[in-house]
Structure formats: C-alpha cells, structure tokens
C-alpha cells in the first residue's frame, strides 16, 4: 500500500507541472484550452523519438518544452488572428496534434525501456553518491525501514524542479507582462483601453501554458518508459481536477497560494486515484470515471458547505433579532 501511494506521490509531482499549465490557461487567461490533450502527447512524442535517436535526454526534454510552446502559440494565433472561438480553436489544435504526434513518433507507441532517460541517469548518479543507502540506513535506525522506498531520486529531483517552476511562474506573473496577462483574463476590455496588445499576450500565455503541459508529458513518457498516441486523452480533465481540488483545500487569495494549491491538488488527486484503485470495486479501466467523480465532488461539496454556512448565519441573525 505504501509503495503504491509513494508511486502516486512521484507521478503527482510530475503531473503538477501539467496542472500549472492548465491553471495558467484556465484561471489566469480564462481560456478553455483543449490543446492540452494534444500538447501533452507532443511533449512525450518529441522527447521519446529524440531519445531513441541518441539525443541526450535533457536536451530531448528541453525540445519537448519548445514544441509545447509552439503548439500553444498556434492555438493562440487561431483564436486571435483567425477569430476562431476559444473552445473551437483548442479542439482544432488538439485534433491536428493527434496526427502530428503520430508523424513525430512514426507509430502509435515508442518504447523507452532500453534507453537512457532523465530518471535513469539521475538514479545512476544518485547511486554513485550513495544517498539512497544513507537514507535507508537512517530510516532503518528509527524503525521505519520497511515503509521507506529504496530510491528517492525521482521524488527529490521533481520536488526541486516543481519548486523552481513555481518560483519562476510566481515571479513572472508579478512582472509587467505577467500582470498584463492576468489583466487580459480578468477584464480584456480594460487592458485594451490601455493600448496593450491583448492578442500577443494571449498567444504568449497559451504558449507558456502548453510548454508546461508538454514538459510534463516528456517526464511522464520517461517515467513510464514509453510514449503513446493516446496517453493525452482526458488530460485537461485531470488538470482541472488538480486545480479545483487544490483551490478547495488551500484557497486562492494570492498567486503564491494559488500555484501552491495547484501542486497540492495534483498530488492529492493522484493519491485519491491510487486509493480508489486499491478497492476491488474499481479497475484501471475506471480511471476516467474516478476522475469525473472527483471533479464533481470537488465542485459540488464546497457549494453545499457554503450554503450550510449561509443558513447558519441567517439562523444566528434571526435569533439575535
């Protein structure tokens, strides 16, 4: 059980990068971007095919980031320059990316079992330093050796990476360009009155959003040791579930708090799914159903709680009167 939860925590940290991208388009830009389902696979496909062809995994992952940025920018151009509805522009790009991703990979699935990835390289460096053995001995000395995984490399590296991404994103959203992007999502007419180029801001915002999504896709492909054309199906729902769960648990009073909420939401989502799959009632084919139920619960429960609080306030006022 602990091993499964720890694995879910690992994958949750990777998916948190994708959730931050969804947060940027969905909450900051107020743009329902369905490109996510395609750009996630684009990141996985680009990194996988480059690794298979002998490119350094770190360079391949950076290339995936760039590919995601381009995909997001094209969605932005379709909307701003082509005057296509936001939802439709995302759907069109998602459909186009399915064929593009197949072209990139050359087939529906690219295995990475025999290839060096970012995680295998980091794990080998980790093993040479003897950090895992030291941590294992430390936990065994306090009687927790049976509950501690044998390798910490993925968790620690992803924690460091997600913290860096969060800090950079928080800083960016407080810069002049970042504030302008936030203003576009809040009140586009107001920012237009200040002679700001809203089209460029939307394109850049969507580019960054999908760059993070593709970045996450590249890591997931290397984590799972394969890239598949269908691995991005429903990814937008997973991202929204992470955002909604995080907002319900942590809140969104500040940007720093909101991005932290998204990261926590992504991890909590993966843990909930892992625990749900441990029940005999569910199997791996029920993943989408579990996701839908989690999103519904995250949307409905806060509203019910707010109504209950409002009823209590009204009853207290009546008693005081």
UniProtKB/TrEMBL annotation:
Residue spans crossing the bilayer: 12-29, 58-78, 85-104, 152-173, 203-223, 229-251, 258-281, 287-305
InterPro entries named among the record's database cross-references: ABC_transp_permease (IPR001851)
Keyword Membrane: yes
Keyword Magnesium: no
Pfam family, one: BPD_transp_2
Protein origin, superkingdom: Bacteria
Protein name in the entry: ABC transporter permease
Membrane-related topology note: Multi-pass membrane protein
């Amino acid at each position: 059980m602990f091993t499964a939860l720890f694995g879910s925590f690992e994958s949750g940290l990777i998916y948190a990068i994708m959730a931050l991208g969804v947060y940027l388009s969905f909450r900051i830009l107020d743009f329902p971007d369905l490109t996510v389902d395609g750009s996630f696979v684009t990141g996985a496909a680009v990194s996988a095919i480059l690794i298979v062809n002998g490119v350094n995994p770190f360079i391949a992952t950076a290339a995936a980031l760039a590919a995601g940025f381009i995909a997001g920018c094209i969605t932005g151009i379709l909307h701003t320059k082509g005057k296509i509805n936001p939802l439709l522009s995302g759907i069109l790009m998602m459909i186009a990316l399915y064929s593009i991703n197949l072209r990139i990979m050359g087939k529906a699935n690219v295995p990475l079992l025999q290839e060096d990835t970012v995680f295998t390289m980091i794990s080998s460096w980790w093993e040479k330093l003897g950090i895992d053995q030291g941590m294992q001995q430390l936990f065994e000395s306090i009687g927790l050796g049976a509950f501690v995984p044998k390798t910490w490399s993925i968790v620690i590296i992803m924690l460091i990476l997600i913290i860096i991404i969060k800090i950079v994103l928080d800083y960016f959203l407080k810069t002049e360009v970042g504030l302008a992007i936030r203003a576009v999502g809040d009140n586009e007419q107001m920012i237009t009155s200040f002679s700001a180029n809203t089209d460029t801001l939307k394109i850049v915002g969507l580019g960054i959003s999908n760059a993070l999504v593709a970045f996450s896709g590249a890591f997931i492909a290397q984590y799972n040791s394969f890239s598949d054309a269908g691995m991005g199906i429903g990814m937008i729902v997973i991202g929204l579930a992470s955002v909604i769960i995080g907002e319900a648990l942590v809140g969104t009073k500040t940007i720093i708090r909101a991005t932290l909420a998204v990261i926590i939401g992504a991890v909590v989502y993966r843990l909930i799914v892992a625990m749900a799959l441990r029940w005999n009632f569910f199997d791996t084919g029920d993943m989408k159903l579990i996701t839908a139920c989690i999103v519904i619960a995250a949307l409905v429960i806060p509203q019910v709680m707010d109504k209950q609080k409002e009823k209590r306030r009204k009853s207290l006022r009546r008693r005081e009167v």
